Amino acid sequence: MFEDNAVNIPQGGIFSEKNTALQKLGIISKFEDKENIPNPAGNKLLQKLRGDGTEPAGALWAIDGSGFRLGCDLLAREADY
Questions:
Q1: Which of 1, 5, 39, 78 is the most buried (most CB within 10 A)?
Q2: Single pTM value for the model
Q3: Is 60 exceeded by the pLDDT of residue 79?
Q4: Do 61 and 68 touch, CB atoms closer than 8 A?
Q5: How many helices (H) and strands (E) does the chain have?
Q6: Please, are residues 44 and 67 in contact by the beta-carbon 8 Å criterion?
Q7: R_g over Cα of the chain
Q8: What is the pLDDT of residues 60-77, one digit of tens each?
Q9: Phi, psi at 66, each rounded to 5°
Q10: What is the pLDDT of residue 21?
């Protein structure tokens, strides 16, 4: 289902697994599945936040229709330093 990455942050491979990973962190997602997200491609603020390269932007889900992922990759890279 999901495994913890190098910095012990749970990861999921598909949308439902990501919700399970969030629950493991104590976060209850308001979006049970992809269809619950209102017009993800039209969300201009999320795109702007993701593009500015800040830590909060790295923690946001990539909700642009191409897939859903947590900012775990960013955290894993920081752990290497």
A1: 5
A2: 0.36
A3: no
A4: yes
A5: 4, 0
A6: no
A7: 13
A8: 554 444 444 555 555 555
A9: -85, -15
A10: 80
State the amino acid at position 70 in one-letter form: L
Rounded Cα distance between 3 and 6, Å, is: 10
Q: Is the Cβ–Cβ distance between 37 and 46 less than 8 Å? A: no
CB count, 10 Å around CB of 50? 19
- Amino acid found at 26: G
How far is 35 from 6, CA to CA, in rounded Å? 31
SS3 content of the chain, % helix, strand, coil (to 5): 45, 0, 50
Amino acid (1-letter code) at residue 49: L
Let me know: does 45 contact 26? Beta carbons within 8 Å.
no
